[in-house]
Amino acid sequence: MGLFDFLSGGDKASSQRDCHPKMFCYQCEMSMPEGCGAHGQEKGTCGKTATKARLQDLMVFGLKGLSAYREHARELMDMNPNNEDLKTLIEIDDVMSETLYFTLTNVNFNFDEHIAQLMKIGEAGVKVMDLLSGGHTNTLGVPTPVEVTQNKAEGKGILISGHNLDMLHKLLQRIEERGLSDKINVYTHSEMLPAHAYPELRKFKNLKGNIGGAWFDQTDVFSKWNGTCVVNTNCIVPPEKSKKVANYIDRLYTYKIVGVEGAKKIENDNFDPLIDQTLSLPDVDGFDSDEKLVTGHHYKTILTLAPAILDAIKSGKIKRFWVIAGCDAPGKSRNYFRELAERVPQDHVIITSSCGKFRFNDIDFGTVPGTEIPRYLDLGQCNDSNGAVHIAIALAEALGVTIHDLPISIALMWMEQKAVLILLALLYLGIKDIYIGVNAPQFVNEDIFNFLNEQFNLNVISDIDKDFGAVLAQ
Ligand code: SF4
Ligand code: SF4
User: Is 62 touching ligand 1 by the criterion CB < 6 Å?
Assistant: First the structure.
C-alpha cells in the first residue's frame, strides 16, 4: 500500500489523520493552539512548510534512537584517549548536536539539506550500532547459537527486561561474588533473550532461560512472577497504563534512566537490595513449559558460515533471504509478519532481530534442505540490526554483485524511535525495496512518502500476496 492510499483510504488511521492539522509545529511563540497550522494553514508564520516541519520531527525521532544506542555504547567503552572508538563517539555526538541545531527555528528551509541531514543521522546510526555491537562482543564475547528454555523457571528468580546486557553482566557477577549463584536464578524477558548467546554471560549457570515474549506482555508475565523484576531500558509499562503493575510494583526495579513511580531504582550499580529482596520472596512457580527458543546468530558468527552459505546460493539451495524484523506492539495486525514467515519457502532463509521476532520465533523453521544452514537466524537485539547489512555486504562482495542484486526481501515493523533510526541507517546505506508496517509513521506526510517511495521504493505493507506474492511464488 502506498502512503497516498493510506492517507486517503477509509481506514482508522486515515480518519485519525483527518483530525490532525496538516501543519504542526510548536517550536516558537507563533505556535498552536491559535498559531501555525491551527486554522488549516499549510505554512508557519516563519515560512516553514508542513513537510519541513515533519522532516524536522523525523530528525528528532532519529536522534532519540541514536541517543539510546550511544548511551549503551558509552557504558561499554574503554575511555583511554588512544581508543579509536572515542573518535567515532565524538562523530556521533557531533551529528546529534548539529541536527538539534538544524531543527532550530529559522535555521534551514532547504528540502535537499533536510534529506542530507537525515542521511547524516542514518550514517551515525550505522556507526553507533557498530560501536555498540563491538562493545558487546569485546566485553561479552561473540554470540553463538544456543537453545534457550522458554517459560520454564524454578527457585528464587530475577526476571530482567530491556536491552542492557552490561547491567545483566554486573548483576550476575555480584550474585556470584556473594556466593549466591546456586540460590538465585536469573531469567530474561523480551529484548534480553539474546543475552543467553554471549559466552561471558552464559558461563553463569544461574542465567537460566527466557520468560514471556515482546515488551508489552510484561504486565501479564510480571504479575505471575513471584520473584523480582528489573527493567533496564525503554519499553517499560507504567502503572498509568495497566492496573496489573500494582501486583508487582513493590518487586519492580529500574536501572539508570528508566523510572516508574513506586518502583525501586538500582543506584550506582548496587544490586544488593535487589538480591536481598529476591532471597526474601517465595520460589517462582507456574512456569513449567517445555518450549524452547533459539538465538545467537550474531553476524560475526554467521560470517563464519559464509562459505557454506555461498555454496548454497551458487547451487540454488538458497534462493532468497528475508529480513523480517523490528519492534513488536500490541494488537493482531502484526500477525502479518508471522503469516509472512510461515509462507517463506523452504529454500529461503529468514534473518530477524528485535522484539518483533516473538511474533514467530516459536516456529521450528529447520534447515535449508540439503544443507546444515538454519532457515531462521536471530541476529539479536534491535541494535544488532547492523548485522543484516554486514551479511549482505559480505555476500555481495563474495558473489561479485551489488547489495541491490542480492535476492533479499525486507519487511520491518516500526514502533518507536530506535526503529526510526534503523530505517534511516538502511536508507543511508542505499537499501531499497523495504516494506514497513503495520502503519505508515504519523510524522510522514504524502510529500515525504512520495519522495521516499521514488528514491528508495519504500512501501507500507498491505496484503502479503500484493506485497510479496511474486517472490514467495519463485
Ligand atoms: S518555528 Fe515557524 S512554523 Fe514553527 S511555530 Fe514558529 S513560526 Fe510557526
Ligand atoms: S525492539 Fe523496539 S519495541 Fe521492542 S523492546 Fe526494543 S525498542 Fe522496544
Answer: no
